[in-house]
Amino acid sequence: MITRLAGFTEGDGFLAKALEFFLLLRDSDLRKQPATAELLNWLSFLRGDLFEEVENPLAKKSAELSHSLSSLVKNADDQETALEVLEGWLSKSS
User: Fold this and answer.
1) In whole angstroms, what is the distance from residue 38 CA to residue 21 CA?
2) 7: alpha, beta or left? (left if phi > 0; alpha if psi -120 to 50)
3) pTM (two decimals)
4) For 67-84, what is the mean pLDDT?
5) Could you list the residue range(s) of the whole structural domain that residue 8 is in?
6) What does the DSSP assignment read for 42-88?
7) Of residues 55 and 72, which shows the higher confidence score?
8) What is the total count of domains within the chain?
9) pLDDT at 14
10) Is 66 exposed, middle or buried (0-12, 13-18, 19+ CB in 10 A)?
11) Has residue 1 got a pLDDT over 80?
């Protein structure tokens, strides 16, 4: 179903990695788990103007990628946990 969104294809490596991270984040110790709406907002952000020239925004660690977590994690107390999960995931993915 997500592959029907504009800018995504079924074999999109970016989409697979984004879903991998999203599921890892959902399994982490957050007070409020991100839902599908947050996932869709985050994907739209990552495919937006800021990362327009980047084929896979998840392939490189950047301040913008860290800031994008606010699209996924709404609870201020969860922001630090989400950042730790992202940093751990990025180090294993590279």
Assistant:
1) 13
2) left
3) 0.81
4) 91
5) 2-93
6) HHHHHTSGGGTT-S-GGGS--HHHHHTHHHH---GGGHHHHHHHHHH
7) 72
8) 1
9) 78
10) middle
11) no
pLDDT band at 30 (very low <50, low <70, confident <90, very high): very high
Tokens of 45: 């952000």
In the numeric block, the tokens 């079924």 are attached to 10
Confirm if 40 and 90 have CB atoms less than 8 A apart: no
CB neighbours of residue 38 within 10 Å: 20
73 burial (CB, 10 Å; 0-12 / 13-18 / 19+) is: buried
Residue 7's alpha-carbon distances to 39, 40, 63, 91, in angstroms, are 15, 12, 23, 26
Residue 83: half-sphere exposure toward Cβ, Cα within 13 Å? 12
